[in-house]
């Protein structure tokens, strides 16, 4: 991150990807009111059913992801996005190698604290 006065500048190409498990990796940035994450999912990756108090917008940049949100399923491809309401149970499965950008408001304090075992354990299922 480069900081100019009040502006924080990020370059996705320079941020190190954090490997969460063999099929899932992420890059993150946090603002005062939002977390933005770029998630790499290899085919077969599963983000298990979970919920959180953060509203989430997931945008698929490439690949295909199957979302199950509060009992409704939908496959999203490049250029498509979904809004996940606060506290809605949801899961994601990568149908092919995919790249997604997720926005969370308020920021994902659990991720900042490293309390994301559900993502790290997902590679052992």
Structure description:
The protein is mainly beta. The protein has one domain (19-124): Jelly Rolls, CATH 2.60.120.10. The longest helix is centred in the last third of the chain and has 4 residues, at 109-112. The strands form three sheets. The chain has a six-stranded antiparallel β-sheet with strand order 3-4-5-12-7-10, with no helix packed on it. A four-stranded antiparallel β-sheet has the order 6-11-8-9, with no helix packed on it. The chain is 6% helix and 53% strand. The termini are far apart. It is built from two helices and twelve strands, in the order E-E-E-E-E-E-E-E-E-E-E-E-H-H. It has helices at 109-112, 117-120; strands at residues 2-4, 7-9, 18-21, 24-30, 35-41, 46-50, 55-62, 64-69, 72-77, 81-84, 90-94, 98-105.
Low-confidence parts lasting 5 or more residues at pLDDT below 50?
A: none
Can you count the beta strands?
12
Cα shape:
globular
Chain-averaged pLDDT: 93
* Cα radius of gyration in angstroms: 14 Å
List the strand order in the largest sheet.
Answer: 3-4-5-12-7-10
Number of helices: 2
CATH superfamily: Jelly Rolls
So what's the CATH class? Mainly Beta
H and E order: EEEEEEEEEEEEHH
Question: Could you give a short description of this structure?
Answer:
It is built from two helices and twelve strands; from the N terminus they run ββββββββββββαα. It has 125 residues and is mainly beta.
């Amino acid at each position: 991150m480069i900081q100019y006065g009040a502006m924080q500048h990020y370059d996705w190409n320079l941020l190190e990807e954090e490997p969460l498990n063999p099929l899932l990796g992420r890059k993150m940035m946090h603002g005062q009111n939002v977390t933005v994450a770029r998630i790499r999912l290899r085919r077969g990756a599963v983000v298990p059913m979970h919920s959180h108090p953060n509203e989430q917008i997931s945008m698929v940049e490439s690949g295909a992801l199957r979302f199950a949100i509060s009992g409704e399923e939908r496959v999203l491809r490049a250029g498509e996005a979904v809004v996940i309401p606060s506290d809605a149970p949801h899961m994601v499965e990568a149908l092919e190698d995919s790249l997604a950008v997720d926005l969370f408001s308020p920021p994902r304090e659990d991720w900042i604290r490293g309390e994301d075992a559900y993502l790290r354990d997902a590679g052992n299922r």
